[in-house]
Amino acid sequence: MKIRDPDLTANAINQEHLDAGLPPVETLVTEELRHPQLVWAAWATGIILVALVVYLTSEFVVINGVNTGAVLADVFSNHDFWAAAGVGFVAQMIDGALGMAYGISATTFLLSTGATPAVASASVHIAEVFTTGLSGISHVKLGNVNRDLFLRLLVPGIVGACLGVAVVTQVDGKAMKPFISGYLLLMGIYILWRAYHRRKPNHEKPRHVAKLALFGGFVDAAGGGGWGPVVTTSLVGSGHDPRTTIGSVNFAEFFLTLSTAASFSALISASPWITVGGLVFGGLFAAPFAAVLCSRIPARTLMTIVGLVISFISVYNLHRALA
Fold it and tell me: Which helix (H) or strand (E) holds 65?
């Protein structure tokens, strides 16, 4: 899950992250002053998550009745469930170590299994509702969210996401696949570039935040991922405060993801629930291993691996789509 505790101290690992253009490593950071509006937003997020869990559980029991146990047994013996769990585990490992790329990684793998862009993006975003919600609450609790930046990201990000949903669900999936794969290929190359591009400090107030959020929300919904690489990387990579940037972007991502998931649920007829369950199940077990991976493998090496994997799979998907 995307629960991050950035450390801004000057140590060797942080210097490595600085050289690679990455957010800082994670350790305990506390800040007593938290804006009341953010606290209320965090409480609202928690209530929404609890309500979703209660609703989904009750619906599952009502639909299956006395067969609930048997249906659960079938789900856990389903190959698609475990394939999605594996994808969720790997994607969350990448995201936990890099602070980005969950959606891009999961969508890239799902497209390679034959899923349409709409179903792949819907599955990823519905699963992300829970991980981003927990992340946002944690960031507010730790004082990592800048209220002004959060509000500047919120509405444009949601608008861009809804536009992305409209595009990916109204255009034929086969026609969209080459464009989505091409976008993912560019993002893979961009991650590789970020791995070897040193950022410079920037103390100016972030500019063009609304435009960045609008674009990030659109490509995130249409491509199944990209909010973190587009928005977080752009702001942090240009030298802005990593802690409040990461926290603000991640908290805004919950509301963005919630809007995207709701839009997909209303507009697509396919039911990706087994895939969604697998993604959530796999992601739950990845968080502790991601921390170990982050501590054992150099950040630049990990970014290089991720960029290469996403690029090669995207090339393969492009070849299949255009063949």
Answer: none
DSSP collapsed to 3 states, 208-250: CHHHHHHHHHHHHHHHCCCHHHHHHHHHHHCCCCHHHHHHHHH
**Distance (Å, rounded) from C-alpha 287 to C-alpha 4?**
10
Structure tokens at 288: 């502790």
Half-sphere exposure of 146 (CA within 13 A, CB side): 14
- Sequence ranges of the domains in the chain: 35-322
Tell me the pLDDT tens digit for each residue of 64-123: 888 888 888 888 888 888 988 888 888 877 776 666 678 877 887 888 777 788 888 888
Q: Are 67 and 166 in contact (CB under 8 A)?
A: no
Cα 260–chain centre separation: 12
- Residue 60's CB is within 10 A of a number of other CB atoms, namely 15
Residue 163 has pLDDT above 50, yes or no: yes
Closest CA to 41 of 127, 130, 126, 141: 141
